[in-house]
Amino acid sequence: MKHYITPSNPMHAQFKALAGYQARHFAYAFEGGVATLTLNRPERKNPLTFDSYAELRDLFRALSSATDVKAVVLTGAGGNFCSGGDVHEIIGPLTKMSMPELLEFTRMTGDVVKAMRQCPQPIIAAIDGICAGAGAMLALAADLRLGTAQAKTAFLFTRVGLAGADMGACALLPRLIGQGRASELLLTGRAMSAAEGLQWGFFNALHEPEALAGAAHQLAHELASGPTFAHGMTKTMLHQEWAMTLDQALEAEAQAQAICMQTQDFSRAYAAFAARQKPIFQGD
């Protein structure tokens, strides 16, 4: 869950702000509690490389101890989200690797998804144009997805002779759009249209291309100004309850809610309600 560490807390030195973070393999910006990660190789439709996979993994891991980032927007430059792994910089070299080396690579790509799901901040994927392969998995691993009518999402692993089971696709996609629809997309590798994605629940909303970034950042700032500790708890529960029975989930949520009831944000919300004012949350 999202932490709150005051400057006087003896653990404060273990946490740090990421406002000054300098990305090497994608663009990074920070404003008003919202971090924006932009895949920025538009001439190739923003493919991933070994280095960008690793940096995304490390950055999302670092967000777990970031004291300033409260929401994340993940997007792509030049009218496309991400075309997946770079054909020449990743696919070619993979054909020459040994089995242990290949396993290290597939575990690393899975670690990106783990890091995205385990970081406490809500992640909003803003998707325009091509969203394919590993790019589709980055979108799927986000908490919310906004798209455009031009978005085309394809889990095209079978198109290159691989299983549709990649980076958690067989776990995440059926939970989002249903087993039958996920089976079709993962077996055929065909592109899901934006209209299908909206109807099936993959997209939370569609926007005009020129309005997509604004809508994503508006939503991110709304979340960043909310009860961020409680948002982190919600994300944790959504993830952990996959493996719980109903009785276990009810007990886990009882404990989670009792913890949130001890926060100052809960008291602020009541005081604001009583005063007929809008609460100002601080994440503690």
> If helices are DSSP runs of H or I spanning 4 or more residues, what is the number of helices?
11
Mean pLDDT: 94
Strand content: 5-15%
Helix content: 40-55%
Task: Pick out the low-confidence regions.
Answer: none
Quaternary status = single chain
What is the H-and-E element order? EEHEHHEEHEEHHEHEHHHH
Structural class: alpha/beta
User: What distance separates the N and C termini?
Assistant: 12 Å
Spatial extent as radius of gyration: 19 Å
Main sheet makeup: 6 strands, mixed
Q: Report the count of strand segments.
A: 9
* Overall 3D form: globular
Strand order of the largest sheet: 1-2-3-4-6-9
Describe the structure.
The chain has 284 residues and is α/β, with parallel strands linked by helices. The protein is 46% helix and 13% strand. The chain is built from 11 helices and 9 strands. The chain has helices at 50-62, 87-94, 99-118, 134-141, 169-177, 179-188, 194-200, 209-224, 228-240, 246-260, 264-274; strands at 27-31, 34-39, 71-76, 123-127, 130-132, 144-147, 152-154, 191-193, 205-206. The strands form 2 sheets. A 6-stranded mixed beta sheet has the order 1-2-3-4-6-9, sandwiched between helices. The protein has a 3-stranded mixed beta sheet with strand order 5-7-8. α1 (50-62) packs parallel to α3 (99-118) and α5 packs across α6 (179-188). The relative contact order is 0.12. The model has no long low-confidence stretch (mean pLDDT 94).
